[in-house]
């Protein structure tokens, strides 16, 4: 479970996130929707205890990011957009194993997890190759596996399909469904309305750091009288700037 409670984040005189609240239930795939620069990544960095809220608090599985950051870190897996941060001289397996070892996984369990994730993400053909020559999509698969290797209860995915082709994106969506079947709580950040529509039933919509909506997609469509999520998003943006 994730509960965001009236969270704000300021950097000097700049307010990146202001008074945002929403709740993700255990076992739910929840969408965090907004354009680039809306405050999605800042919000997720606060969830991951990388940034500290200026005001408010966030609870992950009942633990406060402000008061119990170590407990929060033990329970989450996080994938941020942008540079995947892999070690080019190591193989995909070695990259994943390195991060798994940081979480204290014993060797046998670690290799079982790597083999399982390799199969799930269809990485077997390159799992033992050095990542330096990988395509962006191949690196993204390794980064996703690294995020999941310690089998976290709560998974934070910031623009996870960046660099993935259509086939790989479909593999990713099947993986999300499998993780949900296992009872994982997943927060999925994107500005791709099609992905949100396929993966999520409930969302939080952020624009310029402010929460515009939190709830079910059906409720969102009813509120605006529009079926298409792209059109709804543009209505929200234009309405907030009117």
UniProtKB/TrEMBL annotation:
It comes from the Bacteria. It holds the Pfam family ABC_tran. Belongs to the ABC transporter superfamily. Residues 2-233 form the ABC transporter domain. InterPro entries: AAA+_ATPase, ABC_transporter-like_ATP-bd, ABC_transporter_ATP-binding, P-loop_NTPase. Keywords: ATP-binding, Nucleotide-binding, Transport. GO terms for molecular function: ATP binding; ATP hydrolysis activity. This is ABC transporter. It comes from Brevibacillus reuszeri. SUPFAM superfamilies: P-loop containing nucleoside triphosphate hydrolases.
